[in-house]
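Input (structure):
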C-alpha cells in the first residue's frame, strides 16, 4: 500500500478494480493498522485508509474542538476529490464516530457500513469541561511525551499482550507518532461524540464487530449501538472471541471474512 496526499489529507491505498473500502483508524493509530486486514481481503478490492486530520501528514482541522461532523466533512472532501461512487466504509474505534456521521448524512454514498470496536463518545457539549478520562489523556501525553505515552497504553489494545509482542510493538510504534494539535482535537471530538444517537439515523446496512476481550471499548458499547439501529436495514453483529480492541490487527482474517460476507450479501450474491 502506498501513501498519497490531496487537499491536506494523506491516505494509504491498495489499488483494485472491484468494490472500494474506505477505512478510518482509531485515536491512537494510523493507516498502517489496516495493512494486515488488506492482506486477507479479496484481491480486486480497492482499499483506501486515511490519516485522519491532524495525524501523519494530514493537516489538522481549523476548530480547536471539532465534532464528528467536521471529520466527516473532511472525509466527504476526500471522497469527492477521488471521485468515488458508492463505497463500503469501515470505522475502527474513534473512526466509528466519523464513519457513522458520514453515513447518516450521505447514505447514497455508503453501500455498507462496518463499525469495529465502537467508541460511544461521552456526549459532552463542545466547549464544556472535559471528562476526567479525556483530560487525563492530554495531560499524560504532555507530561510523558508521545513515545512513553504509547508504551504505557499500547498493550491495553491487545488481548494477551505477552503472547503478542510483535503486535504490541506495531501498535506502540503507531501511537508514538501522534502529535498535537491533532490528538487533542480527536480527544475533544471523542468527548462530544454520541454514536448511539447517530446510529438512530442510519439507513444503510451496518455490520458491527467487537472483540470479546476488548477492555478499551467493551462489547457492551457496541451492543448499545446495535440496539439503537433502525431495525429495517439488514444489520449484523459479530463478536470475536479471544480478541481485544485492535481487532483489525489481532484478527485480520476473521474480520476480512465478516467484511467480505457483508459485501456479498449487500450485492445480492448470497
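Output (sequence):
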Amino acid at each position: 500500500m502506498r501513501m498519497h496526499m490531496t487537499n491536506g489529507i494523506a491516505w494509504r491505498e491498495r489499488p483494485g478494480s472491484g468494490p472500494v473500502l474506505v477505512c478510518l483508524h482509531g485515536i491512537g493509530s494510523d493507516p498502517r493498522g489496516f495493512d494486515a486486514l488488506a492482506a486477507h481481503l479479496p484481491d480486486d478490492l480497492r482499499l483506501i485508509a486515511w490519516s485522519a486530520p491532524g495525524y501523519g501528514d494530514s493537516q489538522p482541522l481549523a476548530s480547536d474542538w471539532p465534532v464528528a461532523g467536521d471529520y466527516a466533512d473532511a472525509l466527504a472532501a476526500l471522497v469527492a476529490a477521488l471521485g468515488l461512487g458508492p463505497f463500503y466504509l469501515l470505522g475502527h474505534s474513534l473512526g466509528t464516530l466519523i464513519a457513522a456521521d458520514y453515513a447518516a448524512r450521505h447514505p447514497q454514498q455508503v453501500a455498507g457500513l462496518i463499525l469495529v470496536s465502537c467508541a460511544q463518545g461521552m456526549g459532552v457539549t463542545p466547549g464544556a469541561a472535559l471528562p476526567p478520562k479525556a483530560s487525563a489523556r492530554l495531560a499524560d501525553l504532555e507530561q510523558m511525551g508521545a513515545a512513553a505515552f504509547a508504551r504505557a497504553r499500547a498493550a491495553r489494545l491487545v488481548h494477551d499482550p505477552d503472547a503478542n509482542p510483535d503486535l504490541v510493538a506495531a501498535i506502540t510504534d503507531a501511537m508514538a507518532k501522534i502529535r498535537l494539535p491533532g490528538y487533542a482535537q480527536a480527544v475533544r471530538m471523542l468527548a462530544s461524540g454520541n454514536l448511539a444517537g447517530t446510529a438512530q439515523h442510519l439507513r444503510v446496512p451496518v455490520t458491527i464487530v467487537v472483540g470479546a476481550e476488548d477492555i478499551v471499548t467493551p462489547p457492551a458499547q457496541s451492543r448499545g449501538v446495535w440496539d439503537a439501529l433502525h431495525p429495517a436495514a439488514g444489520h449484523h453483529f459479530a463478536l470475536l472471541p479471544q480478541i481485544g480492541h485492535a481487532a483489525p490487527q489481532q484478527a485480520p482474517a476473521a474480520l476480512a471474512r465478516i467484511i467480505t460476507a457483508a459485501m456479498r450479501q449487500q450485492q445480492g450474491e448470497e
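Notes: The two ends are 30 Å apart (CA to CA). Strands lie at 2-6, 9-14, 20-24, 46-50, 87-92, 110-116, 206-211, 236-240.
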